[in-house]
Amino acid sequence: MFERLLVFFANQKLRWLGRFAYYLLILLLLFFMYGFNDASAGSYIYNDF
């Protein structure tokens, strides 16, 4: 049983799918944290320069 799990998680397609989902989740979380505003909607870092 344990050997079958090792073979399952060693699958390249599964590893690629896992990494894709992981980075997509990070990207979506960043979008939701900072919002979908344009540059004129909020404070922009270069306004004071």
Automatic annotation (TrEMBL):
Pfam families hit by this protein: DltX
Transmembrane segments: 20-36
InterPro entries associated with the record: DltX
Keywords: Membrane, Transmembrane, Transmembrane helix
Descriptive protein name: D-Ala-teichoic acid biosynthesis protein
